[in-house]
Amino acid sequence: MRLRKKWWARPELEESNIFISKPADLKGKWREEFGNNNPIHLELGCGRGGFLTENCKRYPDINHIAVDLKDEVLVYALRKVKEVQPELTNARIVALNISFIADLFDKDEIDKIYINFCNPWPKDRHNKRRLTHIRFLNEYKKFLKPGAQIWFKTDDTDLFNDSQEYFKECGFNIDFLTYDLHNSDFKNNIMTEYETKFTSLGMKTMCLIATLK
């Protein structure tokens, strides 16, 4: 569904110190931006910010960067952060086409990536747009630390099966895998808004954790 342009969204974002309007300028300098040497976790496709906000609250000693494409979505993520915890200091929000994600980070700068319910791009000619495709994984490897993890959740079986092969081909070990996360023994899940809504309607969430060798 196409979002209607909200002309007020960018000015509201730019008024906040957690929105980074020129993120490429911070390549190699993200720890300076946060003012500490804590690990940095990256969420690709943050939506309205529920996952980001809960992550920041639960793990205050980790820095969190959330990326999405549209100001019209990110402004609600910003509001969620401010509503739940106005003084939150370990969150930053970035508007970006994820195809350019490697322009933002230097070698070994990121400790973990979250990819939650990304577009499955089911047609063969569109598979390269998947955020777990080899094309993207090779971009992430430019800035992930050795031993860094990618946590991936989806409700699309074809995407989940194909992604397992993408990770293996790209030099990742799959350390955790389930086709039914909420009925597994996994204890550290944070549910997204999408996940909460559709789980209540009977959707099963698939999840894997891949570690860079």
TrEMBL record:
One of its GO terms (cellular component) is tRNA methyltransferase complex. InterPro entries: SAM-dependent_MTases_sf, tRNA_(Gua-N-7)_MeTrfase_Trmb, tRNA_methyltr_TrmB_bact. Pfam families: Methyltransf_4. Signal peptide: none annotated. CDD domains: AdoMet_MTases. Residues 125-130 are annotated as: Interaction with RNA. Keywords: Methyltransferase, S-adenosyl-L-methionine, Transferase, tRNA processing. Belongs to the class I-like SAM-binding methyltransferase superfamily. TrmB family. This is tRNA (guanine-N(7)-)-methyltransferase. It comes from Clostridium paraputrificum. The lineage of its organism: Bacteria, Bacillati, Bacillota, Clostridia, Eubacteriales.
